Amino acid sequence: MSSSSEQSPLDVADTSSPSPQVANELPSPPVFAFARLLEPQYLLVIASALVVIWLGAHGSLRRPPSAAPPKLKRGEKKREEEKFVEGLVASDAIRFPLMLAAVLMGLYYLIQWLQDPAILNQILRGYMSIMSVAGLSALAGDALDNLTSLIFPTMWADGKGQVHHIDTHRRCQYVVDEKTSEETVIKGKDTPLPGRLSSLALSPSTRHFLWELHHLLTQEWTVRLAVRGKTLVKGELHVNDLLRFAIAGAVSVAYHFTRWDALSNLLSMAMCYFSFLMFSPTSFTIGSMVLASLFIYDVVMVFYTPYMITVAKNIDAPIKLVFTSAKGASMLGLGDIVVPGMLMALALRFDLFQHYQRQTRLEPVELATETETDTASGTVTVATTTTQHRRVKAPYVDTRGQWGNRFWTTPFGRLSPVPRAADTVAATAFPKPYFYASIAGYAAGMLVTLTVMLIFNHGQPALLYLVPGVTGSLWLTGLVRGEVKDMWGYTEDGSLDTEDVVVVVEVDAEGNVVKESKKKEGEEGKTGKDGAEKNGGVEEKDKGHDGATAGHHELLLFSITASPTLT
């Protein structure tokens, strides 16, 4: 017996449909349905969906509005913060179902007219092969970055919980005294390798090679294209950036010619991952509204029209995950991952927002005011001083490069890093109650979907079970924690980010905020005497003609500049 899960052409809603030979069978006893859930293809369906959502949600982490910009380390340049390409609005709850229904009906009648969808499938496979390059390059790039951090972390912990830091500038390893904050270089540990590998007796040439390899994989290259003295393109590049595009292109070409299910699954997962990085539901309210509208769309298209199942059965493109075994095949449409997964990723970012919000402290500020009073002897100026408080945010710790650190600072048998690895704890091991609740809700929805499908031998609209499972688990968690108001007010439209605003608050005797006022700060960049802009402690002067020699200009220049290795 085989079952299949079908997907709409735009990857936003899907259904499950049994094969024709089992469509009219009598319902199966529940005990047999529960037993079949242990078959490999069904376990792979659930596991693959949860893994993609977990990876995509963590990959979508950004600096939350409750955190200050990260502190720059020695020799580090200020990074441009990533922004979501598009955030959903309330009108999307109406626009999405209508748009998807129009496209779905158009494909349905096109398939009916063509009779043989081979040409349409060929066009769609070519289109998806090209479009998947961006998603696959993002997935491959993040995977390579995590692999690099796993091989060359910036810290590791020994059996006593002592954190060893790896200094690439001095080419040594050191520990920090908790009381004095003094750094002590460890003799004999002069390689970039962590753990027991750091104690290996290596030749000078081998140590030099490891440091050079570490520098090559972690350094930034400056790529510049100039025409007639004017810079057209200038940006930062890593070795992994070159590798990820090569991997993405190779996999896409291989899929286009082979059409292997394994490559199709990889491309489908990459597109889901990319969706989490690019789009945001904006708020829990808007996300829940969009999910509710697609919930209705999915039910109508599956139970009351032939469009969804007909189109999905005839489309052969990377728009679903396909798993086969000796007992049959199972498919999961990308919509079952992307639609609820976007809200689950928002839940993880809300957890991060709350984590930094709890670290916000009130710093006392002395405010001096002068008032003029007219008296018989003339005007008298009276100076008064009041103490108020300034809200100070904790600096954000970027998650990039921290997963390797987490592995090397987490003792065997524990799930979290040692407390001394503060940056790693802040970036990866912060409390995640809402995200874990949504994971549980999604897993429960998937189990119910598969169980009902196997009992009745009939396709089920997966969002019928996934939407209540995810949204219900999130809002119920907020209700239990007494944070429904916080969930309702949280948004990623930029209105909560007060990075350039000074918030001065008044507190009562118990330290509770009773009043707050805001005012704009000066520009972040400060200008030196020579007009050079200071950015993170590094001054960049205008060289004129983009660095060209005085009196000359570059007709055509393409350069890749790497920072020098330090010894």
Automatic annotation (TrEMBL):
One of its GO terms (cellular component) is cytoplasmic side of endoplasmic reticulum membrane. The keyword Membrane applies. It is found in: Endoplasmic reticulum membrane. SMART domains: PSN. The keyword Transit peptide does not apply. Residues 1-24, 515-550 are annotated as: Disordered. Residues 1-22 have a biased composition (Polar residues). The chain crosses the membrane at residues 42-61, 93-111, 329-348, 434-456, 462-480. One of its GO terms (molecular function) is aspartic endopeptidase activity, intramembrane cleaving. Its main location: endoplasmic reticulum. It comes from the Eukaryota. GO terms for biological process: membrane protein proteolysis; signal peptide processing. Belongs to the peptidase A22B family. PANTHER family: MINOR HISTOCOMPATIBILITY ANTIGEN H13, SIGNAL PEPTIDE PEPTIDASE. This is Signal peptide peptidase-domain-containing protein. It comes from Corynascus novoguineensis. The lineage of its organism: Eukaryota, Fungi, Dikarya, Ascomycota, Pezizomycotina.
